Amino acid sequence: MSGAEVDDWYALLTARPGDTRWPRDIRARLAVLDEPGILFGVVSRMIGENARSPWYIEPICDRLPAASLRQLAGEAARARGDGDNKAAEAVIAYVSVQQPGALTAYLRALWDISRNQRSGGASRPWRAADDAEVTRLFEVAGDASGPDAGFAVRCLLETRRPEVLARLPTDDAHLAMVGFGRDSNGELRRLHASAVWHLAFPQAILEKWASRYPLRRRQPSWPVHTGSGRQYLTSGFLDRACPKCGHRLHRLLRLDPVPAGIGITSRGQVEFAWCPRCQDFIDAGYARHAPDGAPEPFTLGGSSDLDRQPESFEDWFIPETPVGLVRLGERWEQQDWGQANDRENLHRVGGEPTWIQGADYPVCPGCTRTMSAAGQIAVADLWNFEGICYLLWCDPCAISAIVYQQT
Q1: With bands split at pLDDT 50, 70 and 90, how would you rate the model's confidence at 26?
Q2: 242 and 248 in contact (C-beta within 8 Å)?
Q3: Which of 143, 198, 214, 324 is exposed most, by the fewest CB atoms within 10 A?
């Protein structure tokens, strides 16, 4: 790696300041750039020179190792402390999701900057707050009339530590934002499995998507399914009709067998399905599952729109497809929908959902207990559609819910 190469890339990527519409050829070139020294050098220079066009920082950070991200986090925190720095903000936002521990040592330096921000992501750097910082935040939050009390509570929520959340006088909506709820007895409950698997797709499917979204190429959250090991299914039709419009249901995900640790124990296999003609983004759709895991839909939100999704393979991005489940490690356990920006793999089993519009954990119609998240499918990849379908589950009742959200 030479300084000239960093200079060339820096000039290329900052040639259109303020323009988020990257030329396709630049995205394609960046997608195959895997030289860590160049990648690190470009972002470091952007921070140092306070570049105003940091649109490419997230895909560059995707390809950097943990040690490089830690170093950039320090540079960004120090630069942001000196005043407004868009490149530093972009690095901090990325690291706060992908590697929050890299910011733990800088939280006090970020406090005066972040507490005055109203954006939802301002408190994210506190995801890995240590015990000393948690103690300080409780002191600030304890003065309910103080100007920083509200932000301190938001930072404490972001820790997602049950022993911290249990001490907060917050309502169910705020707890749901960080993946927790309270049962009828007041006990705190995590509303998702801590383990996360990403769906691995065949190479041909990944190539097809990469031709549309070049920055997915070599993006580390997209493992390749080679056909070995256990296979699951996504996309395609089920031989079951929607009770509203009579058309066949679409498969979201078939888990056969259900992997351990995702909160589904009452069924050995489960088929999650929905009707994109009928279900909207306001009401959840529910299904009871037979002993063999097959869904029997008994309520679907919204009203039938017969022109919404034709049963035509020509209109699909992919047909019925075998997939695998892969653990990608701690770095990809937390993801953010906005930050993913069509690059990251948001097809997940287990883990906290990457909500588009806000946390939405419906109540089970069988027992009225808040349902838990079992996974999600980014339906924009399966069909000519948009948004994400979130898979919710009530284990005692063997009832699933599909919550659909879009922009």
Answers
A1: confident
A2: yes
A3: 143
